[in-house]
Amino acid sequence: MFTRRIHNHLQARERGRAQWLVLRRFSLWSMKKEAELESALSRNRRWVVNNQIKNIILRYPNNEIPIPTLQKKFKTLDLQGKALNWLSKYPCCFEIHDDRCRLTKRMMNLVAQEQSLIDAQEPLFVNRLAKLLMLTLRKRLTVLKINEFKRSFGFPDDYIIRIVPRYPDLFRIVNESGRRSSMAVELLHWDPDLAVSAVEASARKLGAPPRFSCSLPSTWVKSWERFREFDEIPYVSPYYDPRGLEEGSREIEKRNVGLVHELLSLTLWKKASIVKLGHFRREFVLPDRLNVLLLKHPGIFYVSNKYQIYTVLLREAYVGSQLVDKDPLVVVKEKFGELMQEGLHEYNQRRRLLNVEKRRKRGVPLVIVDGAKGRRRSHEGSDDDDDDGDSKVGGLFDPEERKRFYKVLFDDDAS
């Protein structure tokens, strides 16, 4: 018995030490936090879920889905609670009738805009896919790996059957082993006009040699010194075959930084998961410790562990928390987010008014804010309470009322 206790204690200590080492290793993956760039990395999980629901609805006949069917799919969306409760929070996005759900007219208009853009941008997707393959060592990537980044690059879900077959002189599908997981897209034609990186294209416009830009405050003296020293090394195009470079040299580091810079430049939001980038180490000939490379160049990249998702962002692509150049697809997706927020605000306002009415009926004093002095005072509900809704914020300043408000906002089981 005593021996078993010692053994269990030692095992627990080993597990604790292993967890500490993992946490310590990952804590070295991020830089000093910058509020504006952290804001740019903010991911609205509700937007992600509603976008998935939208795509599910569009796959069904007449773009309608029975609520019970959608309820079964909630597990795959990592959601709990009732689907009906979730959908009712977004009246601007979803319509419910006869126990079925469909998209609102405003949502369908955005879907049509997005589809029209995808159709119009097909040549752009072709070039983007070709450039992606040109960056690889063997000029090919498995479909599974492309799929990891297809949304970041803006590729449509059906790009394999929609884009690749239309350009047989440029792409082909290969599958040497016959397994589905080994199916790959291969580049057939090298286009020198496409083998121009974003850094080189920008330099040509300025009539200057290609150089990285540094987006750090002037107070970061040591970082600026390291950047200038690094910038003195001649630029190496990411489309250059790295096998001609010496491993561990400054030239290979320059090439690797340029390759990550080019990959991020090809994405819609100019950012990517470091873990996903690591999945492409062999194809792009990137170092094993990719996070170390990125952290060495804070003037070019911003590394964050927001949501415990290690992400790298291209600094020069942002001013504050906003993208400098927004892809038209990004603009449409932002409109979807605005529509979603509008519906959620409408839902919350309606719930707040219902709660106020319930309190009145129960004779519970309401808490409002004195507009002149900002002091809270209680009063009995009267017919004049809602005459000036802007100046009387009402129950949201009551801790109990605020608790109910956030319960409605975040609890999917709230009735």
Summarize the structure.
The protein has 415 residues and is mainly α.
Shape: globular
- Give the % helix: 40-55%
Widest beta sheet: strand line-up: 1-3-2
Poorly predicted runs: 20-28, 369-397, 401-415
Counted by DSSP, the helix tally is 17
- The quaternary state of the protein chains shown equals single chain
Strand content: 5-15%
What is the number of beta strands? 13
Task: Tell me about this structure.
This protein is mainly alpha-helical and 415 residues long. The protein is 49% helix and 11% strand. Strands 1-3-2 form a three-stranded antiparallel sheet. α16 (328-362) crosses α17 (399-410). The longest helix has 35 residues, at 328-362.
